[in-house]
From TrEMBL:
InterPro entries in the cross-refs: Aquaporin-like, Aquaporin_transptr, MIP
Annotated localization: Membrane
Organism: Sitophilus oryzae
Protein name: Aquaporin AQPcic-like
Regions that span the bilayer: 20-45, 57-90, 97-118, 148-169, 181-199
GO molecular function annotation: channel activity
Pfam families: MIP
Gene symbol of the encoding locus: LOC115878723
Membrane topology summary: Multi-pass membrane protein
GO cellular component: plasma membrane
Length: 221
């Protein structure tokens, strides 16, 4: 992706380049949702439980795979927050923002939709319990903290993720990109391990929207 210091409004991309950009974000976000959320389907396991560590690593490695496959195509932002950070740094143009956002939205819906195809719906929506339990990957705030505290947690970890992206895009880091996918994967895993028990560590509007839409869980969205 091009680097710059000024906000960019227009670009010289062809319509085919824009289609490829869109498809790259669809594919990357779909991989994130399918593999990451599949690693959170605890109800389908023999004991019905998946550890927080496994869920964190599932998302970390899902991001790693998505970047490895689609990073050279669209940058594999797979999150509107990352795309906004790239826009502020001048790495993407204003004209590209809706392409990224739509690609991420369709990708999230596609990835989670595929997960629902291969998994019995009662295991995704957690309808095996009589209690109201949020579905797999749906936004869910720990009842021991307030909504304001949950907001702060999500704000802080999303800011940290954005800082990591900005540091990697810094031209002064251009000769340190050989382990890029690993660094991103571990970043997501660590943020998920630490903040997951608080809010689920979503850090990504597209990643939150698809499960909420499919599962009908809007209380903590």
């Amino acid at each position: 992706m091009p680097r710059g210091k000024k906000l960019r409004i227009n670009d010289d991309m062809s319509w085919m380049d824009r289609v490829v950009l869109f498809l790259g974000e669809v594919g990357g976000t779909a991989v994130l949702m399918f593999l990451g959320c599949m690693g959170c389907v605890g109800a389908i396991t023999s004991n019905g439980v998946i550890s927080d560590e496994q869920m964190s690593w599932a998302f970390g490695f899902a991001v790693l795979i998505a970047i490895q496959i689609f990073g050279h195509i669209s940058g594999a932002h797979i999150s509107p927050v990352v795309t906004l950070a790239a826009f502020v740094l001048g790495n993407v143009s204003l004209m590209q923002l809706p392409i990224y956002f739509l690609g991420q939205l369709f990708g999230a819906l596609t990835g989670f939709g595929l997960l629902m195809v291969v998994t019995p719906s009662n295991y995704i929506k957690n309808r095996t319990s009589t209690a109201k339990v949020p579905g797999v990957c749906s936004p869910a705030i720990n009842p021991k903290i307030s909504r304001f505290q949950a907001f702060l947690v999500e704000f802080i970890i999303t800011a940290i993720l954005s800082w990591v992206c900005c540091a990697i895009w810094d031209p002064r880091n251009s000769n340190k990109l050989d382990s890029l996918t690993i660094r991103f994967g571990f970043t997501i895993a660590v943020l998920a391990m630490t903040a997951g028990p608080y809010t689920g560590a979503h850090m990504n509007p597209a990643r939150s929207l698809a499960p909420a839409l499919f599962n009908g869980d809007w209380d903590d969205h």
